[in-house]
TrEMBL record:
Main location class: other
Keyword set includes Transport: yes
Record-given protein name: C4-dicarboxylate ABC transporter
Signal sequence coordinates: 1-22
InterPro entries the record matches: DctP_fam (IPR018389), TRAP_DctP (IPR004682), TRAP_DctP_sf (IPR038404)
This protein's record includes keyword Methyltransferase: no
GO biological process entries: transmembrane transport
Length: 326
C-alpha cells in the first residue's frame, strides 16, 4: 500500500508539473541599450506575442548584447540556441544582396521603405536569407544614420579625411566611408563607448536612438546630420529552429512580428525629434551636412555594388524607381 501511495503521489506531481514544463522559452537577443528603438520594438513584440501564446510558449527578451553582439547572435540563430535576433547592417555580411540598404541615400522615407519591403524584400531578399538559414519574420527599423565625432563638424565628405570612424559589421559601410576619406573600422556596438572615450576611435555613425541609448553624447563633441543611410532592422529566426516550432506558435509569432511594425515606425518618428533635442542639451554641437556633396561622392559605391553582387544593380534600380514621388 505504501509503495502504491508513493507511486500515486509521484504520478500526481508529474501531472501537475506538466503544464509548467510545456511552456517553451523563446529567447530574443538584440544589441540595443535601455530606451533604444530596438528595446521598445522587441518588448512590444514580446508583449503582443505572449498575450496570444498563453501557455504554449513565452518570448523572453535579452537586450544590451547580453546574448552576444550581432555576429554572435546570427551564429546562435543558426545553431538554434536562441530563437530570435534583430539584425540590421550585419545582414549584408550574411546575404550579399541585403547590402543594397548600405547604399547612401537609397531610402527616402518610411513610405518609400514600405514599397521596397513589399516589392523587393519579400519577393527577393527574404528567400535569399532563407537559403542561408535565416527566416525573416518582419521588417522593422534601425533608422537614419548620422555621424558623431570629436574632431570637427562634418559638412562635406572631405571633412572625414583621416577620421577614425567606428562602423558596424558590413563591408559596404566600410567601402563607403573609405571613399569619403575616413578610416573606418568595424566594431561591435557594445565596445564603441569605451573606444570613443579613450580616443581609439574619433567617431561613429548611428541612428539617434542608438546614439542616445548608448550614451555617446557623453563622449562626443559633434553630431552632423548626414542621414547618409537608412537601415531597416529585421526580426529573424533560424530556419531549422523555426521549422521545429508548432505551427500554431509560428502563426502567432509571425502575425505579432508583422503587426509590431506600425508601432516601430510610430516610435521611431517620435524619437527622432525628442532625442536630437536631448543630445543637443547634453552639449553636443549639431550641424547640417551638405547632402548633395555626399550623394555626388557616393557614385562609386553604387557602381561597385552593382558589379560585385548578382542582381545588385537590378535590385537597387527597382528600389530607386519605387521612390518616385515619395
Amino acid at each position: 500500500m505504501r509503495k502504491l501511495f508513493v507511486a500515486g503521489a509521484l504520478l500526481l506531481a508529474g501531472s501537475l508539473a506538466a503544464p509548467a514544463q510545456a511552456q517553451m522559452e523563446l529567447k530574443f537577443g538584440h544589441v540595443g541599450g535601455p530606451g533604444s528603438l530596438f528595446e521598445l520594438s522587441a518588448n512590444e513584440f514580446a508583449k503582443r506575442a505572449n498575450a496570444k501564446l498563453g501557455d504554449k510558449a513565452k518570448v523572453v527578451v535579452f537586450g544590451s548584447s547580453q546574448l552576444g553582439g550581432d555576429k554572435e547572435l546570427m551564429q546562435k540563430l543558426k545553431l538554434g540556441t536562441i530563437e530570435f535576433a534583430l539584425p540590421s547592417t550585419v545582414m549584408s555580411s550574411e546575404v550579399d544582396a541585403f547590402g543594397m540598404f548600405e547604399m547612401p541615400y537609397l531610402v527616402k522615407n518610411r513610405d518609400h521603405m514600405k514599397k521596397i519591403e513589399a516589392e523587393v524584400v519579400w519577393p527577393s531578399l527574404a528567400p535569399m536569407a532563407e537559403k542561408k538559414g535565416y527566416k525573416v519574420l518582419a521588417v522593422w527599423e534601425n533608422g537614419f544614420r548620422h555621424i558623431t565625432n570629436n574632431v570637427k563638424p562634418i559638412v562635406k565628405p572631405e571633412d572625414l579625411n583621416g577620421i577614425k570612424l567606428r562602423v558596424p559589421q558590413g563591408k559596404w559601410r566600410v567601402k563607403m566611408f573609405q571613399i569619403y576619406g575616413a578610416n573606418p573600422s568595424p566594431m561591435a556596438l557594445s565596445e564603441v563607448f569605451v573606444a570613443l572615450q579613450t580616443g581609439v576611435m574619433d567617431g561613429q555613425e548611428n541612428p539617434l536612438t542608438q546614439i542616445y541609448s548608448s550614451k555617446f553624447q557623453e563622449v562626443q563633441k559633434f553630431i552632423s546630420m548626414t542621414g547618409h543611410v537608412y537601415t531597416p532592422a529585421y526580426i529573424v529566426s533560424g530556419t531549422r529552429k523555426w521549422a521545429s516550432l508548432p505551427e500554431d506558435v509560428r502563426t502567432i509569432l509571425e502575425a505579432a512580428a508583422k503587426d509590431t511594425q506600425g508601432y516601430v515606425y510610430e516610435q521611431a518618428a517620435k524619437l527622432e525629434d525628442d532625442l536630437l533635442a536631448k543630445i543637443k542639451a547634453a552639449g553636443v554641437q549639431v550641424n547640417e551636412a551638405d547632402k548633395d556633396a555626399f550623394i555626388a561622392a557616393s557614385k562609386d559605391v553604387y557602381t561597385e555594388f552593382g558589379q560585385d553582387v548578382p542582381d545588385g544593380a537590378k535590385l537597387v534600380e527597382k528600389a530607386i524607381a519605387l521612390g518616385a514621388g515619395s
